[in-house]
Specification:
Elements lengths: L1 E2 L7 H11 L8 H14 L3 E5 L2 H11 L6 E5 L6 H8 L3 E4 L11 H13 L3 E8 L8 H11 L2 E5 L7 E2 L5 H5 L2 E5 L12 E5 L2 H11 L3 E2 L10 E2 L10 H11 L2 H19 L5 E2 L7 E2 L6 E4 L8 H10 L2 E2 L11 H6 L8 H9 E3 L8 H18 L3
Length: about 375
């Protein structure tokens, strides 16, 4: 079965993990700080904190920033639920903004419009969480202008975009956002199995999150080795040393992985851009996607089959597509507890109804991608209205 994404584990990766497993520390050892240092250098941050996953990273940020009932957080509806849940978990309220249909990223006009609307109601806008959808950086220069104008914290949900560039800079995420979150889940561009990180130049936030990562506990060199104090109500959000050994080995291959995924995307573009049934990811002069996803939009109104039927036909041919994402406001919890007007999300609704994520990963072979292309084109030719 060809899935939309898959980890790429090399022999070197395995050797690094095995070596760490045979060492003295498999958790809370030196590999964690070593990986944090390498991530900081690669992405241009003063400091990095590694945690168990990106969801926990967002929860720790919300806790460190002391979000509560008076806080309002702007999020993308076209994302996984982690970002908006991080607001809710501490009592804050998430506010979804419309997306840009072409990119899947938050519309900057929609962000500013939402802020103005909230301010008229005397609401406190605490943070803006921006996802670089599919691996394509958002319009960060404009987002930074908005953040400064309204004095709100900017958080880059960078989980899709490791290896991407904005205005020629691969370190753009930390440059423009106050806090950056990454995921090293198995389907991301680099993996530690599960895992995530927080990168920032704000050393005070980093210090707070480091404590919250380990139950809110702090230690001191001036005290005995066994001595510690719990100063906050925190979590066990630690990552292991053998995960970090894998992560460092993967990071050394990130440029190579992204380069391969760009080549695969070009192959898809070449074949699917020839038909008005398809809408392929666009190219931009000022930003380059890391292609965590290859989101292909299909005009199902021109077909005799539904999106669900299309999925099943591909599955029968051993191609497991995916959709990124079901808009968050459609989930039962959000329908029950928060009220959103679907008319505010016309672009998001249209995007969701048309988008499918095609297989794109480092170990995908040429004959595999050609099989995907030929299978999809055969299905389209059979069911297209003539």
């Amino acid at each position: 079965m060809l899935s939309y994404s898959k980890q790429s584990i090399s022999r070197k990766d395995i050797e690094k993990v095995v070596k760490t497993l045979k060492g003295d520390y498999i958790t809370q050892g030196k590999k964690i700080e070593e990986f944090e240092s390498k991530l900081s250098n690669y992405f241009g941050a003063k400091k990095c904190v590694l945690v168990s996953n990106a969801t926990m990273a967002l929860y720790l940020i919300s806790k460190a920033l002391k979000w509560g009932k008076a806080d309002n957080v702007i999020c993308s509806p076209l994302s996984f639920v982690s970002a908006s849940n991080a607001a809710l978990i501490n009592g804050a309220k998430p506010h979804f903004c419309e997306i840009d249909y072409e990119t899947g990223n938050l519309s900057t006009k929609s962000i500013e419009k939402k802020i103005i609307k909230l301010k008229k109601k005397k609401k406190k806008i605490t943070a803006i969480i921006v996802v670089d959808y599919g691996g394509l950086p958002a319009d960060w220069k404009e987002i930074r202008r908005i953040g400064k104008k309204y004095k709100t914290v900017l958080i880059n949900d960078n989980c899709h975009a490791m290896g991407a560039s904005y205005q020629g800079n691969k370190k753009y995420a930390v440059k423009y956002a106050d806090i950056v979150v990454q995921s090293y889940h198995a389907v991301k561009n680099i993996t530690t199995g599960e895992g995530g990180s927080i990168l920032s130049n704000n050393l005070q936030i980093i210090k707070k999150i480091k404590s919250l990562r380990t139950h809110g506990i702090v230690k001191s060199d001036k005290k005995p080795l066994w001595y510690y104090q719990m100063v906050d109500l925190g979590y066990n959000a630690r990552i292991t040393d053998f995960q970090c050994a894998l992560g460092m080995s993967q990071l050394s291959r990130l440029n190579k992985i992204v380069k391969k995924k760009k080549i695969l995307a070009e192959v898809y573009n070449k074949y699917f851009s020839k038909s008005n049934i398809f809408d392929v990811p666009q190219k931009y002069v000022d930003r380059k996607s890391a292609f965590h996803l290859y989101p292909l939009k299909i005009n199902f109104s021109k077909l005799k089959i539904t999106k669900k039927q299309f999925f099943n036909l591909c599955k029968n041919k051993k191609i497991k597509l995916q959709v990124h994402y079901i808009p968050i406001y459609k989930h039962p919890y959000y329908l029950r507890n928060l009220k959103y007007n679907l008319r505010d999300f016309k672009n998001c609704e249209n995007f969701y109804s048309s988008v499918v994520s095609l297989p794109i990963y480092y170990d995908l072979k040429k004959n595999d991608i050609m099989y995907v292309i030929k299978t999809i084109k055969k299905i389209i030719n059979k069911y297209e209205y003539k």
